[in-house]
């Protein structure tokens, strides 16, 4: 409105001048020519305002007394802000996102900066801060404006002022060390060409001007440039390599963190479950976790210091809403959000994310019984140790029974090879109670009866365990993947605060009434164990990192189907934040140098993870399950052998006494070695022969003669031929 009144005033003046020369001869029409760049901000506004003003004048006959005002507007086809366009091109070319505009706060300055804002917006860039200097401001006032501008993030300053003010501002900036390394100053159109050629300025003025600006203004005729359509591509701009302030060819970053003493406020979720990812110590407030370690490692890779403070978000009683956490960036409560934040479409519309540092697609967790290899299932009821101990006991029992039966039972006699086979055959056939050999000795029967009891227990336990393993392993969940989950009508669990809830409802069309929020891994387990029929859930939909952590601590659950979203976790920053870009680079570096893997190993793969075979292990039979039986059996063997040895020794001493007669000095001349051989020979012979020879000796003694002195060794061949 002000602008229109202004235009109206101008026309009134113009018309008064035009008509004032000869008031008596009023022309019917007064023609006024106007030249505007109609393609510019001012041109567009002026066109509308002039048309409205002309209309008002012509409708009010008291102003021009019947004379018609005609304004012929001509488009200059030449932007009055050609320099502004170039500045915007430059900012875009060098990848700066934010600029600070320094200008004299008059119409020229404001219009120029408005035009700059428009041009930058076309390139998705923006003026972060407008440093307006009052016309005629004192040096101290100018300095105050500049110092305030340095508090802001941007280090790209666009100076839009007339020559005198421009030089004053730039000189002051020089004195305030604002033209040194890290700073970029761009002066608009004619000021830049003036500064570029002015011998008065020796302040390391940015070399950009020797690049694009000079090229366009000095070498190529403006008309030639204007004929060319403006191209968003920078390929045809033929920029020279710039020497930047600080005598460096490295492009200034163009921004810093506002050094007004405030740390970055980094929001973090105050988690109550899966605290390996992010956790806040309620006592000390110390923040730890996988996501925190990744963030800190990435920040340490930045070339510049960024002070920050973690600010927990959430009640600490349940996991916070991650959507609300992200919204805190929009309301400026947080400068960034760090944690297990999924990069999902809705969020990328409002904030910028870094590169993902871990994959976090949604998966389905459900209760399933593991299928194992049926071919070798028969081995699974016993542990390896149990198999070994059982096998060993079979051999021990075979040997003990052989020792006990050898002297009295022809089944356990014969050539050594045959006897060895008998031991094996006898012992292992007891497994099926199918041994053919009789046990004749009392001790042998005692051992065998205990052993057969042990075998009975082992056998029935084996059968029960194998039955359990084979039947239970065949059961599995009816949920096979996301399609069968959606198609079913059963309740689905999701993690409190996670985007999974809205994803299931909005993207997959799952009825909210089917969803059940679960806060902790214990609640996951309980809901799955109960199952849909008893108030639990059929499956849980959650991000893979949580589920993997859950599975590392819980058996009898598994991921079914494939990951059905392909998201990851990243750190969230406000739109266009340069820190998001630099941290993305840092995350890639962490990934390439292996640090990311090391942090992952530290937080996510240690702990009491149960291997899949542990579930099966619980059903297996161990040696300790049968320890009592083995001990009883072992003791029975020892007792039987001891008694057998006692009897044998007694028989042997009787036999030796009878053989040597009362007059001989028995044993005095015998060596221990031959005694042992004689004992073994005695033990090898059938007991019946001992009784026969004993009877004979008694008869001979009764008849007054000497003993027969039967040698068991010499009669061994007879025994052998007698045995079966
Ligand atoms: N990780 C939970 C979420 O981003 O919603």
From TrEMBL:
Domain Solute-binding protein family 3/N-terminal: 263-607
GO biological process, one term: cellular response to oxygen-containing compound
Keyword Signal: yes
GO molecular function: ligand-gated monoatomic ion channel activity
Domain of life, source organism: Eukaryota
Domain Ionotropic glutamate receptor C-terminal: start-end pairs: 265-606
Transmembrane regions: 384-404, 446-470, 626-649
Gene3D superfamilies: 1.10.287.70, 3.40.50.2300, Periplasmic binding protein-like II
Signal sequence coordinates: 1-20
Keyword Cytoplasm applies: no
Keywords: Glycoprotein, Ion channel, Ion transport, Ligand-gated ion channel, Membrane, Receptor, Signal, Transmembrane, Transmembrane helix, Transport
Region (Disordered): 705-724
GO cellular component entries: membrane
Membrane topology (UniProt): Multi-pass membrane protein
Localization per Swiss-Prot or TrEMBL: Membrane
Family listed: Belongs to the glutamate-gated ion channel (TC 1.A.10.1) family.
Record-given protein name: Glutamate receptor
Organism in which the protein naturally occurs: Eleusine coracana subsp. coracana
Gene: ga19239
């Amino acid at each position: 409105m002000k602008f229109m009144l202004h235009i109206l005033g101008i026309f009134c003046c113009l018309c008064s001048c035009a008509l004032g020369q000869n008031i008596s001869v009023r022309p019917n029409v007064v023609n006024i020519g106007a030249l505007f760049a109609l393609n510019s901000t001012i041109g567009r506004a002026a066109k509308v305002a002039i048309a409205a003003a002309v209309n008002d004048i012509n409708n009010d006959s008291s102003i021009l007394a019947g004379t018609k005002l005609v304004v012929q507007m001509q488009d200059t086809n030449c932007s009055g802000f050609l320099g502004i366009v170039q500045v915007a091109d430059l900012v875009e070319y060098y990848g700066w996102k934010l600029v600070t505009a320094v200008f004299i706060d008059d119409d020229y300055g404001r219009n120029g900066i408005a035009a700059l804002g428009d041009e930058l917006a076309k390139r998705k860039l923006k003026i972060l801060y407008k440093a307006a200097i009052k016309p005629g401001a004192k040096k101290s006032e100018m300095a105050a404006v500049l110092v305030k501008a340095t508090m802001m993030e941007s280090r790209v300053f666009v100076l839009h002022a007339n020559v005198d003010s421009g030089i004053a501002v730039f000189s002051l900036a020089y004195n305030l060390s604002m033209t040194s390394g890290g700073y970029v100053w761009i002066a608009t159109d004619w000021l830049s060409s003036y500064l570029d050629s002015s011998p008065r300025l020796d302040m390391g003025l940015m070399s950009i001007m020797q690049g694009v600006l000079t090229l366009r203004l000095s070498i190529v005729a403006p008309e030639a440039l204007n004929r060319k359509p403006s191209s968003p591509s920078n390929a045809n701009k033929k920029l020279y390599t710039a020497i930047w302030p600080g005598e460096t060819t490295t492009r200034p970053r163009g921004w810093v963190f506002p050094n007004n003493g405030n740390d970055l406020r980094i929001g973090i979720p105050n988690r109550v479950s899966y605290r390996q990812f992010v956790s806040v110590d309620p006592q000390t407030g110390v923040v730890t976790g996988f996501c925190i370690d990744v963030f800190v490692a990435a920040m340490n890779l930045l070339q510049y210091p960024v002070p920050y403070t973690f600010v927990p978000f959430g009640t600490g009683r349940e996991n916070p809403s991650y959507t609300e956490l992200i919204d805190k960036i929009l309301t400026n409560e947080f400068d960034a959000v760090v944690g297990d934040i999924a990069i999902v479409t809705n969020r990328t519309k409002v904030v910028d994310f870094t590169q993902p540092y871990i994959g976090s697609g949604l998966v389905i967790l459900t209760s399933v019984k593991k299928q194992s290899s049926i071919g070798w299932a028969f081995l699974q009821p016993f542990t390896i140790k149990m198999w070994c101990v059982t096998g060993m006991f079979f051999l021990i029992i075979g040997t003990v029974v052989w020792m006990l039966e050898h002297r009295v039972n022809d089944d356990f006699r014969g050539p050594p090879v045959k006897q060895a086979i008998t031991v094996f055959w006898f012992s292992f056939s007891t497994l099926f109670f199918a041994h053919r050999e009789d046990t004749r000795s009392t001790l042998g029967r005692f051992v065998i009866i205990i052993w057969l009891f042990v075998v009975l227990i082992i056998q029935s336990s084996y059968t029960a365990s194998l039955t359990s393993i084979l039947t239970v392993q065949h059961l599995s969940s009816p949920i096979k993947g996301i399609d069968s989950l959606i198609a079913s009508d059963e309740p689905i669990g999701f993690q409190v605060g996670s985007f999974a809830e809205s994803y299931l409802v909005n993207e997959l069309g799952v009825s909210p009434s089917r969803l059940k929020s679960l806060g902790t891994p214990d609640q996951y387990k309980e809901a799955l164990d109960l199952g849909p029929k008893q108030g639990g859930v059929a499956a849980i939909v959650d991000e893979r990192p949580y589920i993997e952590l859950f599975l590392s601590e819980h058996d009898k659950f598994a991921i079914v189907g494939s990951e059905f979203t392909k998201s990851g976790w990243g750190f969230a920053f406000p739109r266009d934040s340069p820190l998001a870009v630099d941290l993305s680079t840092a995350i890639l570096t962490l990934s390439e140098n292996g640090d990311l893997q090391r942090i992952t190993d530290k937080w996510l793969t240690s702990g009491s993870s149960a291997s899949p075979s542990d579930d099966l292990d619980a059903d297996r039979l161990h040696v300790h399950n049968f320890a009592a039986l083995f001990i009883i059996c072992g003791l029975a063997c020892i007792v039987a052998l001891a008694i057998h040895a006692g009897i044998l020794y007694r028989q042997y001493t009787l036999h030796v006494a009878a053989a040597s007669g009362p007059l001989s000095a028995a044993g005095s001349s015998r060596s221990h070695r031959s005694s042992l051989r004689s004992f073994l020979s005695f033990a090898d012979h059938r007991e019946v022969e001992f009784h026969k020879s004993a009877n004979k000796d008694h008869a001979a003694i009764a008849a007054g003669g000497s003993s027969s002195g039967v040698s068991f060794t010499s009669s061994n061949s007879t025994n052998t031929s007698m045995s079966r």
